[in-house]
Amino acid sequence: MHNVKKIVIIGPESTGKSTLCSELAAHFNTIYCPEFARAYLTEHGTDYSYDDLLTIAKGQLNLEDEYVEKIVMGNSKLKNQNSEFIFIDTDMYVMKVWCEFVFDKCHQWILDQITNRSYDLYFLCKPDLPWIKDTLREYPDEKLRIKLYHYYSDLLINQSTPWVEISGSYQERLQTAINAVNTL
Description:
Layout: E1 5-10, H1 17-27, E2 32-33, H2 36-44, H3 50-73, E3 85-89, H4 92-103, H5 108-116, E4 121-125, H6 142-157, E5 163-166, H7 170-182
Parallel strand pairs: 1-3, 1-4, 2-3, 4-5
Helix pairs in contact: 1-7, 3-4, 4-5, 4-6
C-alpha cells in the first residue's frame, strides 16, 4: 500500500488549526481532512451528549480514512497532486480531551483508537492567537485555553510520535510547520 504521511494538527479552539491545515495542503499540493465535529454540530446543534462525542469520533476517523483513500487512489481534484502527505484537522487526542474535559470520562473506543492508529507528525497549536468567536466555539477564556493546551502537550509528551509546537502569527505558524514537514 502507498505510504501516505499523516500529519495531525491539534490544540484548543481558535488556535488556527483549520487555517493551518488548509494552508499546508495548498503549499504541499495535497488535500487535508477537515474536522468532522464542525459539520456534525452545525447539523445537529451544539447541545451535544457524551454519546454524541463517540459518534463524532467515529465520523472523524471515517472521514480521515476516506481522505487517505482519495490520496492513495489519486481521486483528488488537484492536478499533479502530491500523494506523500495528508494534513488532518483533529484526531482522537482531541476527542479524549473533549470527553474528559466536558464529561470527566472517555469512551473506551476512543482510547483504543489512540493506541491502534499511527501518525507521522503532530502539530500542537498554542493559544497565542486572538480568540475568534463563532457559533461552535465554547471556551473563550484565556486561562481555560491555556489549561486545555497543557492537556494536549501532556498527551503528546507521553507518546512516541514526533511533535512540534506551533505558535506566533499565522505566517510564523505556517513557516514553522512547513519547515517541520520538510524535515520529515
